[in-house]
Request: fold
Amino acid sequence: MEIRKCRHDDIPSVMKIESLSFKYHYPSSIFYNYLDRNFYVAEEDGKVVGYAIGDARRHLIVSIAVHPDYRRRGIGTKLMESVLKNMHGYAILQVRVSNNEAIKFYKKLGFIEKELLQSYYIDGEDAILMFKNLD
Reply:
C-alpha cells in the first residue's frame, strides 16, 4: 500500500469512496479544488482505496474515507498521518455524533472532543468538534 498525493485522474475513485462512505457527500468540485494541496490517496494494487484532505490554512481535516472493503487495516491512520504532518499548531474536524467508529478512530489519533455543534448537518444531526494539538 502506498500513500501519495492525489492526482486529477484519481478523483472518480475518490468520488466512489465518498459516495460509499457518506449519506451526504461532497460534490466533485470540492475534490478538484483541493488537488494541489494537502490531499492524499492510499493506493493498493493500482487501485485508490482511501483518501484524506487537510486544509492547513484553516487547520481543518476536510474529509477522510477508506473504501469499505479496505477498512480496519491501518489505511486511515496512514492517511491522517500524511495530512497532519503538513499542518501546524492544531487540527480540527467535525464528526457526526452517531459515528461511533470515527469518533473512536479520531480519539486513537489523539483528537479530543471539544464542542457539540447542534444541527450541524443538513439532516439536522449534531456534530462533535474535535481538536488535536500538533506542536
In short: The first strand starts at residue 2 and ends at 5.
